[in-house]
Specification:
The complex is a heterodimer of chains A (232) and B (241).
Chain A lengths: L1 H12 L1 H37 L7 H16 L2 H12 L7 H26 L3 H9 L4 H31 L11 H9 L8 H33 L3
Helix pairs in contact in A: 2-3, 2-5, 2-8, 3-5, 4-5, 5-7, 6-7, 7-9, 8-9
Chain B lengths: L2 E12 L2 E12 L3 E5 L6 H8 L7 E6 L2 E2 L5 H5 L2 E4 L11 H11 L5 H14 L15 H14 L4 E5 L7 H16 L3 E5 L3 H7 L2 E6 L2 E6 L1 H6 L4 H10 L1
Parallel strand pairs in B: 3-8, 3-9, 6-7, 7-8
Antiparallel strand pairs in B: 1-2, 1-4, 4-5, 9-10
The chains are: A mainly alpha (232), B alpha/beta (241).
Bound molecules: adenosine-5'-triphosphate and magnesium ion (MG).
């Protein structure tokens, strides 16, 4: 047990270790943040195409979206990461972090699209019909009626997806990125720190803290949305 | 009186299921047509094809002298109001917003005028105190009466009702029927699907009977209820009266 505390003290008193952890944490945050942004934007576009009214012009875009989400959701994230690194962006000098952001962002987009699509489709069709029968345009109906109702279904599931992305970025260490996960492993295998337990434990706390913060924020937003629902 | 709606050989099928098998029908201004028929005969589909909640498979529908198409239907819907069985009040909007959204968005009137008109109508149905409430807090009867005045806000030329009282408890049915009666007395042209036979008799200027996707009999309520011509209608009336 003494040994364990010694190692904790050692971890927090060795500047290199702290620097490594913070560096890894920062990289994890960077990859996660930009991947989530890409996922949200691309995922929203895909969901809008997917739920748009069927028409001649939409056949091909709808088909492309379908193929895209099927492939992404049907193959392992780790494999997608490898393909991005060793096939698509196997360009010498291309920044690894950008490749990783794109890999996680493109992956997340498929799941975000699914969340938004099902949120939109869960709005009662009677709501759209009411708008149509009054002579409103599809656009107005979406903006004023469907979207505000869909948001309530979407936010909680989107929170889950954001959390998933943050945790999933840990596999970036598989292609050699020095993220939080990698930092923990690196410190653990260092000469002085002959145990993985402490750095792994600290890294876990870092992940947990971020996930907890996001869960908290999502819960607050959910509560706000529910309040506006029960205004009488 | 002039025809406000003319329907020629309207057919509608869902996949292989042929629901409307060629309907010819004219509606004159000021008429109040009650549509009767057994469950699944296509009454709702018939009504919903008129304002294109359902896309007809074939046939022509004229509003006035204009052939209704996908291109002009949105404009036409301003003049063809619809009241649904399940009210379909917009749940994220207050009662007031439900009433004013469309007329203001479509620039039929400005916000102030719309609110004033909405207040007048709400006061008339004794629900002015609900103006800022959300639909979830209203009873079925209140919702349906608001849905009716929401349609009236547009000052439509025709009003379509699809079983407006079928989802209501017996106590609120009377209130809703009273309001429909009043709208009718105001001269509104009406098409209504209903199972309220005594109300049908009272309000109709014409009764249309649909069976298996075709109009098989029509006439004045006196003729129709007292002297049905076809065995199918006789059988139907024996069951429901
Ligand atoms: N959106 C739809 N998709 C597929 N089939 C449909 C759809 N709407 C209606 N139908 C079918 O069309 C037929 C007629 O339905 P419709 O709702 O018009 O009957 P109805 O006369 O209004 O019956 P009810 O008195 O029960 O309301 C039924 O067989 C129904 O299953
Ligand atoms: Mg029906």
């Amino acid at each position: 047990m003494d040994n364990f505390f010694e190692k904790i003290v050692e971890l927090f008193t060795t500047p290199e270790y702290i620097e490594s952890l913070l560096h890894g944490f920062l990289l994890t945050l960077q990859i996660s943040f930009f991947a989530i942004i890409i996922g949200l934007i691309l995922g929203t576009v895909i969901a809008l195409v997917d739920t748009a009214q069927k028409s001649r012009w939409m056949i091909i875009p709808k088909f492309i979206c379908k193929v895209y989400t099927t492939i992404i959701r049907g193959t392992p994230m780790a494999l997608q990461l490898f393909i991005m690194f060793f096939v698509i962006f196997a360009i010498r000098g291309f920044p690894q972090i950008i490749t990783a952001i794109l890999a996680f962002g493109f992956n997340s987009a498929a799941y975000v699209a699914e969340v938004i699509r099902s949120g939109i489709q869960s709005v009662d069709s009677g709501q759209t019909e009411a708008g149509l029968a009054l002579g409103l345009s599809r656009f107005t109906i979406f903006r004023k009626i469907v979207a505000p109702q869909a948001i309530k279904n979407i936010i909680p599931a989107l929170g889950n997806e954001i959390i998933t992305v943050i945790k999933e970025t840990a596999i970036a260490s598989m292609v050699g990125l020095y993220d939080l996960n990698m930092a923990a492993k690196d410190i653990g295998s260092g000469q002085n720190m002959a145990s993985y337990i402490v750095p792994m434990f600290v890294a876990a706390l870092f992940y947990l803290a971020v996930v907890y913060l996001i869960t908290f924020v999502i819960k607050r937003i959910e509560k706000k949305l529910r309040e506006s629902d029960s205004r009488v | 009186m002039e025809d406000i709606i003319r329907i020629k050989d309207l057919k509608k099928q869902f996949g292989k299921n042929k629901v409307l098998k060629g309907i010819d029908f004219d509606l004159k201004t000021g008429e109040r047509v009650v549509v009767l028929g057994p469950s699944g005969s296509g009454k709702s589909t018939f009504l919903r094809c008129i304002n294109r909640m359902e896309e007809p498979t074939s046939g022509e529908i004229y509003f006035g002298n204009t052939l209704i198409t996908d291109k002009n239907i949105q404009k036409m819907r301003q003049d063809i109001g619809m009241v649904f069985q399940h009210f379909n009040l917009i749940s994220n909007l207050t009662v007031m917003e439900n009433l004013t959204l469309a007329p203001v968005k479509l620039k039929l009137m400005n916000g102030e005028t719309a609110e004033k008109k909405a207040r007048g109508l709400l006061r008339h149905i004794d629900l002015l105190d609900k103006a800022e409430s959300f639909p979830a807090s209203l009873s079925g009867g209140q919702k349906q009466r608001i849905a009716i005045i929401r349609a009236m806000m547009m000052e439509p030329k025709v009003l379509l009702f699809d079983e407006p009282t079928s989802a209501l408890d017996p106590e609120s049915i009377g209130d809703v029927l009273d309001l429909i009666r009043e709208v009718a007395d105001g001269g509104m042209t009406i098409m209504i699907v209903t199972h309220e036979m005594s109300f049908a008799k009272e309000i109709a200027t014409r009764v249309v009977f649909i069976d298996e996707g075709k109009i098989i009999e029509e006439g004045t309520p006196e003729e129709f209820f007292a002297h049905p011509k076809t065995p199918r209608v006789k059988e139907f009336l024996e069951k429901v009266l």
